[in-house]
């Protein structure tokens, strides 16, 4: 069985050791770096399945490391560690391609759960698959279309990108803020828009009643793609 290898980049000795120990006990192989300089060397020289990056680091910061990872290994999942209340860091990380974030102070159980969830869905990242199956039909990533039997339903760019992001993160609640940052490429702190609701409604209508059930609205939280709907 493949043992996942996690790269942990954190300058706080206690946090770094705590994360490394918890990951090792949970069956992961662990690489750790104490600053951005050390991490840059590991990013190029080592193999790893997921990176856990603190934002504030001596040397290269977490965003610099994220950019470098995305340049070299576009599909490697990345989780960012951000300070409580640092909304700008969350938005910036998501825009740069982070898969998820954990807010300090955090519990080790939360970090482990998020890592497990990201690794579970990473083989289904849009760049790695051509389609996502639906109860009736499928989403064709290559053609950017919804296929229902013999019919190919053309989706708008926003409809397709939104469906793709939700499907790639199946089982995880996707907030409106994340959608604005990752799909709309807008800063959620600066805009208020109902276009997400409108796009979701149009997408559900095109998908048909049975398929539309995979997209569930969680009031006050966001949306979730449920494969078993």
Describe this structure in words.
The chain has 229 residues and is of the alpha/beta class. The protein folds into two domains: 5-124, 3-Layer(aba) Sandwich (Rossmann fold); 129-225, Orthogonal Bundle (Arc Repressor Mutant, subunit A). The protein contains nine helices and eleven strands. The chain has helices spanning 13-25, 36-45, 62-72, 87-96, 108-121, 157-168, 176-182, 195-207, 209-212; strands at 5-9, 29-33, 50-54, 78-83, 100-104, 131-134, 137-140, 145-148, 151-154, 215-218, 222-225. The chain has a five-stranded parallel beta sheet, with helices on both faces. A four-stranded antiparallel beta sheet has the order 6-7-8-9, with helices on one face. A two-stranded antiparallel sheet has the order 10-11. Helix 4 crosses helix 7 and helix 6 (157-168) crosses helix 8 (195-207). The protein is elongated, with a radius of gyration of 18 Å. It starts with a strand and ends with a strand.
